[in-house]
């Protein structure tokens, strides 16, 4: 399994604050800044633990489950998060168009059903 997170750093944004915002959702990813972009990745399933917990704490598991299933293609899930929400340590899915630009998240795995069930279990599995 592989998790990739990336975002554009706007001129008005502090790269350190953006890194902190991303680490609030994906704390175990190693982030690197290159030019006007920030990248992070992990090969560990556990790197999704805080993201999973936030989905539960914010009571958005059902909408997250729908979004993850809709964003699935072959062995990849690709979705976008709102950067402004991340700055306040929250998860908010976006369709890619936000004032500050989105955070792109890609999850590559052989068994995506297992990943989706882990992140956002259906009501019957909670």
UniProtKB/TrEMBL annotation:
Transmembrane spans: none
Database matches in HAMAP family: UPF0201
Family: Belongs to the UPF0201 family.
Name of the protein this chain belongs to: UPF0201 protein AKJ62_00335
Native species: candidate division MSBL1 archaeon SCGC-AAA259D14
Lineage: Archaea, Methanobacteriati, Methanobacteriota, candidate division MSBL1
């Amino acid at each position: 399994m592989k998790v990739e997170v990336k975002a554009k750093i706007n001129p008005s944004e502090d790269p350190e604050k953006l890194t902190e915002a991303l680490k609030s959702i994906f704390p175990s990813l190693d982030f690197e800044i290159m030019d006007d972009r920030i990248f992070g990745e992990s090969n560990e399933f556990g790197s999704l633990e805080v993201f999973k917990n936030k989905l539960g704490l914010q009571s958005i598991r059902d909408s997250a489950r729908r979004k993850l299933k809709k964003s699935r293609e072959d062995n990849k899930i690709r979705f976008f998060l709102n950067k402004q929400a991340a700055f306040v340590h929250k998860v908010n899915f976006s369709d890619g168009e936000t004032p500050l630009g989105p955070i792109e998240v890609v999850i590559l795995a052989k068994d995506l059903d297992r990943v989706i069930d882990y992140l956002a279990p259906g009501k019957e599995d909670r």
